[in-house]
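quick one, two chains, predict together pls
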Amino acid sequence: MLLSRVADNVYWGARYLERAEDTARIVRTYTELIVDLPVSVTSTWEPLLAVVGGRWAFDLAHSEANEAAIVSFLVAERTNPGSVASSIDHARDNLRTTREVLPREAWQAVNDLYLFAQASALDAVDRRSRARFLNRVIGDGQRVEGVIATAMSRDEAYQLWCLGKALERADMTTRVVGVRAASLLAAEHTGGQVYDDVQWMGVLRSVSGLQMYQRATRGPIDGAAVVRFLLFDPVFPRSVTHAVATARAALLQLPRADETVAVVDRVASLLAGLPTVADDGAALDAVMDEVQVGLAAVNDAVVGAFVRSSR
Amino acid sequence: MQRVQALPDVFDELVAPDGTPRPAAAALVEHLRALELAELQERQNLAEIDIIAQGITFTVYSDGRGIDRAWPFDIIPRVIAASEWRRIEAGLKQRLRAINHFIDDLYHDQRIVTDGVFPADLLEHSVNFRPECRGVSPAHGVWAHISGSDLVRGADGTMYVLEDNLRVPSGVSYMLENRAIAKRVFADLFAEQSIWPVDSYTDELNRMLVSIAPHGIDDPTIAVLTPGIYNSAYFEHSFLAQRLGAALVEGADLVVGDDDCVYMRTIGGRERVHVIYRRVDDLFLDPEVFRADSTLGVPGLMRAWRAGTVGIANAPGAGVADDKVVYAWVPDIIRYYLGEEALIPNVPTYRCYYPDERQYVIEHIEQLVVKPANESGGYGLLIGDRATRAELDAHIARIEADPRNWVAQPILALSTVPTLCDEGIEPRHVDLRPFILSGASQSVTAGGLTRVALRKGSLIVNSSQGGGSKDTWIVEVD
């Protein structure tokens, strides 16, 4: 007996919280990467804008695309609807109206994080305090996941939470692959990029995937293998394939599965037809766009099935 | 070593005028006197951090935006002896039994009017009488299911009922949260004394709501109806829904079908609702019957209620008895329906409706609090000894123009409880809001929500106007 309105809020609360955590991880990893690379390698912060999105809004607010401006925009600025701070605000706004269906400690953790971000988001602009802020965002996101995993009944609200988390993860991994991996692959072909292994490790770290990649491949870091891992690994939870399968499993437990599962299956079959593009940067970028369109269709089907149709 | 003392000519709940603790508060006062001020302030800070971290808030409107404020809480509790509380509990149950008879009578035969006990023209001018409710017979004859009756104690130690809140009284969630915090602050005292627990309230509420389900429904689906996130009591609505295991719904989540039944819009389709604990005022409940512009309500809800397919608490129209003029008649109402004298007195109230009482009010206005019948939140209220002559004269003119709309009461010196202030522990004025549940049977909270006026000398306990709250301990004394 989950209200449609509450279903909508749980779903979006989960997506926004995941978005905050993922964006924080991408910014943290990129900072570490820049620090690791020798000064002789030209380093730019603009790829971050390309991954997370919002270039247009950024140009409205800032005249120069330097580190401080980009990090401030991606982490702290509320004029950017996709910033870490905005995502936390949206997550809290949505989850505030779902307190009767989520475990109490989950709401408290989200509220804690909100209060912390209100006070400290600008700390992320300075490199010296950046990690401390971003680590807390990531840690609190994991804390909420822990509460949900151990204290929430596997009811409809739980399935919607898993669905929101899985779709956001799939979306974020396709962005990382489509932008970062695609440009690295393109550079490899022209021989332009150096310190490849460091860059590819950065790609994996930005989705918490380095350790699991190393376990899965037991070999050196190789661009095409990284792309295959992030797209197709059947057991890594942030691979696109696994996230899509997770979304599918959640939809099966929810009403109107007959309408919604077909839409997610289209994304799965699109993925299944891709292995050949894994070492071609330009093709990869285009295909990731297609996958994102497919994920957006799943989102629309979910919102349509659970919210609009009960009006 | 803390000074814990009372004001002259005011009753203090914890200490007698000579500074000795009242028996029920002896352990607490001894404990407070043994603590350094810094230690107490540290405990107060920890309590406030808890409140913020748990998101215990109330909402205030500012610039068209709802802003969450942390719930104001003072760690020093108010203590009442269990022996006194048993008498108060009996008095509150008696009061609500009579009030429910009264409401039910007004919407049926109006015997109390025919018998000349309650004046007919007062009823005709009541803004809270709902003609749409005539002839409806809610389960058990109960209309006011959840009542918050405010109690105050005068200088001589007498506990009075100041007003009965029968529409959508709030505060019970804060009573429960205050206890959770106080147990951490004074863990030792809870271990070594017998303090009545308050936690059973939500179970009692659940039992009461089940008891008003439509006939034949043993396992009803319950929903809490909230005006939404911008309501000042949204925290409480959400809290109660959680504790009841009920759905927290807004008007748009409900729909009344052609079968006159109420349904929730769920992700699996429509699902029947049997009992609604509504926290939306009467006039916003159903745009088909009351305010047509209401977006908070549910079109057809009154139709469903009249058809008996849904129980609503409090019943529409229950507010007719939540009125400062009706209040003045409650002792007569108790006598009329129950044949008993009121166990808890009203604050003496002069009814300007009667010429001799009106004359007294006009002659003694500077010693009285003058209140209009149907305004809440202190609007139109005049405190005689704090008003200018011009203000007094203006009120006299308003009383003479519409006497039935005015009552007056002596200015009470509300009792105090020692409270942690910047300067140390100081007495501050308090009231007490217990909650009374009435359904198939009745129950009363163990104590209630103690509200405290944090500003020195102030009598205003509302949280929106500088008021705070305290835990309330009902203590068994051997």
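Chain B touches chain A at residues 52-55, 221, 229, 238-239, 241-242, 246-250, 252-253, 264-271 (CB under 8 Å).
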